[in-house]
């Protein structure tokens, strides 16, 4: 059977009047029944009557046939169920194939003043990635964001704000002069984050903007996603906010994907959730319409050929929070725990915050999901674990206690290896005047078989009531036969981690 992949057209979204309307297509089902009826009629014509004198099945054969059918059901069905359980416990080959020849690359922001030795691995910049997307856009630009401070005037006057200013002007031009539909789903503005940039875009007629009120919808949380979707063909997903500091003063990591309608259409469904929840009267439905669902998750990822078809990987996109993850979508926390559980040799993690707690709730709650998964991987599977956690002016001192608790089990038994370092971005007196800057804001994990790039910090709040996305790229079972190992994206991410782990900016935990 030939797989048909339907690509969502951005224009179609405007046709929905409410989030609760279902756009389920039943045409395929009708075609299946019609084919079944035609096939049955052909059998009847070719084989003649089933009953009667010349029938191929005599009445006396009925009891024997019934007994044989029952034996098959009793004996084979349990075996099939057991087979399904076994296959769910390993990294599966993809059921679905993307027909596009996609380009996928890592991009990062390196803060001014942070340098590496000559010959260190390096990648394209976040600024260049966003410029690429703006240049490629011909129809639509959809952006999901936490807050907006692209212009220097939004924060503090500083010479390093020029990249953010330029991106803002290009977005303004796209929406006013290039006839491109610009839609922005943002977290609801606050006094601390008034989002003046998007107000300007609205007043100039450059963009449609909707604010998602998470406290009203879920009782708390924010839209923490950082996502661009262009023409439903290209996308950026990563840690960089719509903030000039994310381009020159904060260390960021993301993924740029171009010419890949199957992935862009799928992540576009996540944007559609945000967009529809930005309506003033929106309510999260008990069941999301089928048009928001996905086929691609940990058990049935999408097989994607990329970078001139040299490589293929099994990819899916996870999301949080659970009430905003329609049918088929892997929840962010489930994706992270499964990636940890399936590591065989190493797990390397770089995140800004790491807490086995909810830290933004009125009452702090213990939330050990990731912590338990890492301990289990280290103890039971003898997987080497390294965590590179940020240290900056806004770090919470309590975090060290939990990190030391995790590291303390290292070497308690043979081959239990957990190592933790803090990453410190150097800061000059001038840079210290810039608020909420000079930090390693990365949110990724790489193992010996999976690369995970996300938009969430690792504390419970980000997975229970806050919106985020994970980009999960799994090695195919039989490796990359058509390409060289050095060009494998997962290995590139592992090399990036090693660069930072072994750098002068990585400090041992204070005992």
UniProtKB/TrEMBL annotation:
Name the UniProt record assigns to this protein:
Putative phospholipase d3
| Transmembrane region(s) | 61-80
Pfam families tied to this protein: PLDc_3 (PF13918)
List the GO molecular function terms: catalytic activity
The protein's organism comes out as Lutzomyia longipalpis
Keyword entries, A-Z:
Membrane, Transmembrane, Transmembrane helix
Q: Which InterPro entries match?
A: Diverse_PLD-related, PLDc_3, PLipase_D/transphosphatidylase
Give all residue intervals belonging to the PLD phosphodiesterase domain: 219-246, 436-462
Tell me the protein family, please. Answer: Belongs to the phospholipase D family.
């Amino acid at each position: 059977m030939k797989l048909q992949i339907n690509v969502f057209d951005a224009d179609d979204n405007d046709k929905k009047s409410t989030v609760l309307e279902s756009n389920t297509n039943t045409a395929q089902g009708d075609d299946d029944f019609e084919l079944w009826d035609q096939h049955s009629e052909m059998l009847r014509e070719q084989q003649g009557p089933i009953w009667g004198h010349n029938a191929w099945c005599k009445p006396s054969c009925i009891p024997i046939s019934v007994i044989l059918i029952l034996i098959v059901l009793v004996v084979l069905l349990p075996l099939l169920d057991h087979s399904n359980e076994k296959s769910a416990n390993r990294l599966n080959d993809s059921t679905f194939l993307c027909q596009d020849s996609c380009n996928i690359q890592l991009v990062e922001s390196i803060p001014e003043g942070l340098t590496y030795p000559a010959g260190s691995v390096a990648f394209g910049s976040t600024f260049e990635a966003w410029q690429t997307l703006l240049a490629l856009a011909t129809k639509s630009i959809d952006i999901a964001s936490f807050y907006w401070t692209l212009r220097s005037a939004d924060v503090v006057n500083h010479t390093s704000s020029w990249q953010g200013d330029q991106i803002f002007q290009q977005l303004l031009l796209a929406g006013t002069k290039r006839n491109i539909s610009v839609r922005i789903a943002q977290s609801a503005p606050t006094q601390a984050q008034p989002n003046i940039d998007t107000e300007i875009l609205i007043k100039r007629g450059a963009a449609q903007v909707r604010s998602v009120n998470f406290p009203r919808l879920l009782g708390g949380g924010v839209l923490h996603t950082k996502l661009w979707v262009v023409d439903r063909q290209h996308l950026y997903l990563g840690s960089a906010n719509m903030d000039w500091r994310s381009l020159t003063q904060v260390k960021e990591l993301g993924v740029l994907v171009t010419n890949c309608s199957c992935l862009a259409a799928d992540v576009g469904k996540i944007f559609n959730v945000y967009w529809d929840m930005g309506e003033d009267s929106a309510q999260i439905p008990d069941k999301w319409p089928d048009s928001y669902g996905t086929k691609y998750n940990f058990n049935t990822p999408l097989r994607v050929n990329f970078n001139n078809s040299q490589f293929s990987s099994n990819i899916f996109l996870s999301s949080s929070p659970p009430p905003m993850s329609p049918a088929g979508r892997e929840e962010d926390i489930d994706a992270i725990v499964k990636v940890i559980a399936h590591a065989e040799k190493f797990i390397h993690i770089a995140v800004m915050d790491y807490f086995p707690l909810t830290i933004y709730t009125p009452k702090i709650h213990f939330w050990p999901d990731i912590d338990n998964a890492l301990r289990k991987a280290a103890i039971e599977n003898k997987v080497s674990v390294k965590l590179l956690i940020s240290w900056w002016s806004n770090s919470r001192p309590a975090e060290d206690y939990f990190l030391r608790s995790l590291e303390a089990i290292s070497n308690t038994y043979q081959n239990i290896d957990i190592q933790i370092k803090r990453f410190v971005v150097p800061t000059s007196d001038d840079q210290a005047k810039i608020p909420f800057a000079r930090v390693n804001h990365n949110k990724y994990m790489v193992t010996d078989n999976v690369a995970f790039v996300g938009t969430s910090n690792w504390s419970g709040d980000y997975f229970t009531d806050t919106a985020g996305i994970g980009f999960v790229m799994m090695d195919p079972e039989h490796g990359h036969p058509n390409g060289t190992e050095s060009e494998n994206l997962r290995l590139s991410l592992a090399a990036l981690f090693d660069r930072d782990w072994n750098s002068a900016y990585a400090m041992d935990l204070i005992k």
